[in-house]
Design a protein that fits this description.
The chain is α/β, with parallel strands linked by helices. The chain is 48% helix and 16% strand.
């Protein structure tokens, strides 16, 4: 299951990082992204009552994961709700152990080579480069020099203007979030659908 999930993330190329002010907004953002063709959704635990969002989306044709996971207890909660991958803004060894036990990919946030090596040694197959707006896409090639097996997913600061640069530089996928929220605030569900379609076209 773990390798199947990683393959689906790599195939989709874009992960919609959903942060809602409430469950209803998170569901609308997610459905807009799905309708726009995005097939991988990361529901963040910064969204109030995110459990309800998982339940409302469980029958959608989409790969659901959990983001902003800070501890193993939250990771387990997400897995029991149906999350197929776990994302953190940092590396947590206890989360890595729990995810390995359940055959679930763990994608921790890393900014340094030390972070990346530690995460890879703990079994993390994809490393979240966060915040990506502090780096240039060429950073991936630099990392892949000493760490050729490191698979990196930049998140934070990814937009329509630079997503292709990141993918061409070797990103396994890119996480997008704030763009979707801005679109929703300006134009509702339809704007999220249109923006998602544009991202899918870029990938």
């Amino acid at each position: 299951m773990k390798h199947s999930t990683l393959a689906r993330i790599a195939e989709s190329k874009v992960v919609a990082v959903i942060r809602g002010e409430n469950p209803e907004e998170a569901v609308q953002l997610s459905k807009g992204a799905i309708e726009g063709g995005i097939r991988t959704i990361e529901l963040t635990y910064t969204t109030p009552q995110v459990d309800d969002v998982f339940r409302q989306l469980r029958n959608e044709d989409v790969l659901l994961g959990a983001g902003s996971v800070l501890d193993p207890e939250t990771a387990l909660n997400a897995i029991l709700l149906g999350a197929k991958f776990i994302v953190s803004p940092h590396f947590n060894k206890e989360i890595a152990i729990l995810c390995n036990r359940h055959g679930i990919p763990y994608m921790p946030g890393c900014m340094t080579i030390r972070d990346m090596v530690e995460a890879m040694e703990a079994g993390s197959d994809v490393l979240k480069l966060f915040p990506a707006n502090q780096f240039d896409p060429s950073f991936i090639r630099s990392v892949n020099g000493p760490l050729p097996h490191a698979r990196i997913m930049p998140t934070g600061g990814i937009n329509l203007d630079n997503i292709e640069d990141w993918l061409e530089a070797g990103a396994v996928a890119c996480g997008i979030g704030s763009d979707l929220n801005k679109a929703y605030q300006q134009g509702g569900l339809e704007a999220v659908v249109n923006l998602s379609e544009q991202y899918v076209t870029k990938c």
